[in-house]
């Protein structure tokens, strides 16, 4: 489906993507996660054929997407602030969705307008941030495109609307499995719908793996500082706190039976780190991580 081979991309002289590679051949919901400015939107633009890599190669269903209508006919990319015409209303935007997407699901678009309480006649410039996100999401999900790319689809949506969106995403994907690549800063709640995750840092991929794998990563160990330091000297420490003679460290390790037994036998306490904290630490600048 998607092959990205060693691509580099810069704006002016600033390198934003640096020899980045990944391949995704399965029709899975994949989260693209990274800090602000890490290059997520730039990568999505390249995948959708809006920009061309300086070096390296992108192939979507075996074809290069840049300036290639045939290659992107089965790609639907909804940007965070999608540039709709300023004179359009909601109805016009849906007609645009239908026109450009051969697998468009009209019945679902009608239904979702009601779910997200969108008025067809309302001008897009008059929509709130959340309502505009909902409209973009409706177009993205109803496109049924083999590769659907959604940049921050939950931006501005309240908790109730976000919950509805996750349900629609899950059900639609179950009915019609396709590659849905999406970004969100609400990683704690949205991760439950991801089957895979790509984590990007400074324009490169930190890891691309099954979400079930990522969910097991990151452990907190705490106990006597001297004992703990001695026991974990060979481990990758992501975060640490010291309170008197007690120390607490987050390790880049799995919350495994082995680690639980290790903690037990050394009089240490162990707990699973929150996913968001683990990812934040994995994308932290190096000098901030060392003890
Ligand atoms: N059109 C542009 N011209 C110049 N620099 C740009 C442009 N678009 C993005 N950048 C820069 O490229 C880098 C990556 O931006 P990008 O939008 O891809 O990041 P992002 O991961 O999507 O960030 P965010 O989470 O904040 O949306 C940033 O340093 C940004 O300032």
From TrEMBL:
The yes or no answer to whether the keyword Transcription regulation is present is: no
Q: Which UniProt keywords apply?
A: ATP-binding, Nucleotide-binding
Occurrences of domain ABC transporter (ranges): 2-227
SUPFAM superfamilies assigned to the protein according to its UniProt record, in alphabetical order: P-loop containing nucleoside triphosphate hydrolases
| One GO MF term | ATP binding
Pfam name, any one: ABC_tran
Q: What is this protein called?
A: ABC-2 type transport system ATP-binding protein
The protein's organism comes out as Aliicoccus persicus
């Amino acid at each position: 489906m998607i092959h990205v081979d060693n691509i580099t991309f810069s704006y002016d002289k600033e390198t934003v993507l640096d020899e980045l590679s990944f391949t995704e051949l399965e029709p899975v919901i994949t989260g693209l996660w990274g800090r602000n400015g890490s290059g997520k939107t730039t990568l999505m633009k390249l995948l959708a054929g809006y920009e061309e890599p300086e070096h390296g190669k992108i192939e979507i269903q075996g074809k290069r997407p840049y300036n290639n209508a045939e290659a992107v006919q089965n790609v639907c990319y909804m940007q965070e602030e999608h540039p709709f015409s300023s004179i359009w209303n909601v109805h016009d935007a849906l007609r645009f969705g239908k026109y450009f997407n051969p697998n468009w699901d009209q019945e679902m678009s009608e239904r979702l307008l009601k779910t997200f309480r969108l008025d067809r006649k309302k001008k897009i410039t008059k929509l709130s941030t959340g309502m505009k996100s909902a409209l973009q999401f409706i177009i993205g999900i109803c496109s049924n495109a083999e590769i659907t790319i959604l940049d921050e689809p939950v931006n501005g949506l309240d908790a109730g609307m976000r919950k509805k969106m996750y349900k629609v995403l899950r059900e639609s994907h179950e009915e019609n499995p396709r590659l849905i690549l999406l970004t969100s800063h609400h990683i704690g709640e949205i991760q439950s719908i991801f089957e895979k995750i790509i984590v990007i840092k400074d324009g490169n991929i930190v890891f691309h793996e099954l979400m079930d794998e990522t969910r097991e990563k990151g452990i907190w160990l705490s106990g006597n500082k001297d004992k703990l330091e001695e026991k974990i000297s060979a481990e990758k420490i992501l975060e640490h706190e010291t309170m008197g003679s007690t120390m607490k460290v987050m390790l880049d390790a799995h919350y495994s039976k082995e680690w639980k037994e290790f903690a037990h036998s050394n009089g240490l306490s162990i707990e699973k780190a929150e996913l968001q904290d683990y990812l934040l630490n994995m994308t932290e600048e190096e000098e901030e991580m060392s003890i």
